[in-house]
């Protein structure tokens, strides 16, 4: 059960790192020789994946990765996982923003070194996707009006929550 909890923390840390554009934290979740296959967006080593994320960053208005069902098979210091996810993106376009909503799964391989689990291979499987063109985001409902707005990268309101005490 401890290994399952540690693996769940790993996949949750991935979501936070990718959504907050924290590339140092993201890099630290992968073994140096790990691969990440995100379809035509990126395939190959983790540095290639991070370079693609950095190139896309100016166009990403919303990035939210959500983990739902997790299935792990653990064998000593190696493991495999099928991680169900819902991913929401809003991308800036030349005339208007576009929403892309994806339901899919990550097929992962993990290895534990020095007491810490990391990704050794990650592959995205897209089961379905919706595109709203143009974006249809509306924050006028009383349940969202006046609330803080989440933002991709380091401008998100949560950054200060986890920052070391400065005072």
Radius of gyration: 17 Å
Quote the beta fraction. 35-45%
Largest sheet properties: 5 strands, mixed
Residues in helix, %: 10-25%
Q: Can you tell me the residue ranges where pLDDT is under 50 for at least 5 consecutive residues? A: none
| Global morphology | globular
- What's the count of strands? 5
Secondary structure elements and their pairing?
Elements: H1 2-19, H2 23-28, E1 30-37, H3 46-56, E2 60-75, E3 78-91, E4 98-113, E5 116-132, H4 158-162
Parallel strand pairs: 1-5
Antiparallel strand pairs: 2-3, 3-4, 4-5
Features:
DUF4440 domain-containing protein; alpha+beta; NTF2-like_dom_sf; 4 helices; 167 residues; five-stranded mixed beta sheet; SnoaL-like
Q: How would you portray this structure in words?
A:
The protein has a 5-stranded mixed β-sheet with strand order 1-5-4-3-2. Helix content is 24%, strand content 43%. The mean pLDDT is 93. By secondary structure, it is of the alpha+beta class. It is globular. Strand 3 and strand 4 form a beta hairpin. It is built from 4 helices and 5 strands.
A few lines on this structure:
With 167 residues, the protein is α+β, with helices and mostly antiparallel strands.
């Amino acid at each position: 059960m401890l290994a399952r909890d540690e693996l769940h923390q790993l996949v949750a840390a991935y979501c936070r790192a990718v959504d907050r554009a924290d590339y140092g934290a993201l890099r630290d979740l992968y073994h140096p020789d790990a691969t990440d296959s995100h379809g035509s967006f990126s395939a190959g080593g983790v540095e290639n994946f991070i370079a693609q994320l950095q190139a896309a960053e100016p166009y990403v208005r919303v990035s939210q990765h959500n983990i739902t069902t997790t299935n792990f098979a653990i064998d000593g210091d190696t493991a495999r996982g099928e991680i169900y996810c819902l991913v929401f993106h809003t991308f800036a376009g030349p005339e208007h923003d576009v929403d892309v909503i994806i339901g899919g799964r990550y097929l992962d391989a993990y290895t534990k070194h020095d007491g810490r689990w990391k990704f050794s291979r990650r592959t995205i499987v897209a089961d379905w996707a919706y595109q709203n063109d143009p974006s249809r985001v509306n924050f006028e409902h009383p349940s969202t009006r006046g609330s803080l707005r989440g933002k991709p990268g380091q401008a998100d309101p949560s950054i200060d929550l986890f920052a070391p005490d400065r005072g």
